[in-house]
Amino acid sequence: MHRIVVPHYTPTSRNKERREHWSDRAGIVKKLMLIIRPQIKLQKVPVYAKIKLRFGFYFRTAAVRDQDNYSPKALIDALKHCEIMQDDDWLHCRHEIIAIERDATNPRTEIFIEEGGW
Predict the structure, then answer these.
(1) Lowest mean pLDDT among 36-45, 61-70, 98-107
(2) Can you give the CATH number for the domain in which 77 is found?
(3) Disulfide check for 87: which of 35, 68, 92, 106 has CB 3.0–4.6 Å away?
(4) Its pTM surpasses 0.85
C-alpha cells in the first residue's frame, strides 16, 4: 500500500463546487498533479489494472461535514493524469472516504493506494 499526502488541501463541498467555473476545477487538478506526481515517483507506485483508493480529509476547522458532500474527483483525476491507473471508471477504480476529521495544525488529504482485487 502506498500513502500520498497532499498538504493544505481538502476538497470543497459539492455545493460550492457546483458554482465554480470548469476552468477553475481544471486548474486545481493541475496543481494537485504537481504535488502528487513526485510522491508517486519517489514511492515507485506501479500502474494498476484495478486500483483501490482510500481518502482521508483532515480539515482546519471543526465544522460538521456530511461525507456525501465531499468528492475526491479532482484527486482521482490528478492520479489518472499521473498514469497509475488504466482508467477511473468503475471497472478499474474503486474509492472510499475513510476519514473526515479536524486537524487544525496540519490540514491535508491522505490518499492510500493499493491494487484492487475484485
Answers:
(1) 61-70
(2) 3.30.1330.70
(3) 92
(4) yes
Helix, strand, coil distribution of the chain in percent, nearest 5: 35, 30, 35
Per the structure, the complete domain to which residue 44 belongs is given by 2-115
What residue spans of 44-105 are helical by DSSP H?
A: 73-81
Rounded Cα distance, 16 and 77, in Å: 18
Total domains in the fold of the chain: 1
Residue positions counted in the chain: 118
d(CA 85, CA 2): 14
Task: Please name every residue paired with 58 in a beta bridge, in sequence order, or none if there are none.
Answer: 101, 108
